[in-house]
Amino acid sequence: MSRSSIRTPPWRAYVTSDMADVAFGMEAVRRILKILQGQEFYEAISRIPGYRVKDAGVIKTIGEVFRRSE
After folding, report:
1. Which domain holds residue 8?
2. What is the structure's pLDDT at 63?
3. Using an 8 Å Cβ cutoff, are 46 and 53 in contact?
4. Which end of the chain offers a freer environment for a tag, N or C, measured as fewer CB atoms within 10 Å?
5. E strands within the chain?
6. What's the N-to-C CA distance of the chain in angstroms?
């Protein structure tokens, strides 16, 4: 196989262009959100006395988080 016929994997392009942190970070966020939105997480937290699950895994603005309940 000649050197010119070897394809560079896409992740290598990210690493060499300093975009690796963003690409890998976004994938981690997606995985965490999927866990937080899952039924298994909901059930696990619901079993802990004094805790409740409300909007787990929902992305909100700062204003939405600190808005007073009316």
Report:
1. 3-66
2. 87
3. yes
4. C
5. none
6. 69
Instruction: Supply 5's token pair.
Output: 């016929």
Number of domains in the chain: 1
- pLDDT, tens digit (0-9, with 9 covering 90-100), for 6-59: 665 555 555 555 555 666 677 888 899 999 999 999 999 999 999 988 889 999
Residue 29: how many other CB atoms lie within 10 Å: 11
Closest CA to 13 of 1, 25, 3, 22: 22
Which tokens go with 42?
């909901």
CA distance 24 to 22: 6
Integer Cα distance of 57 and 35 in angstroms: 8
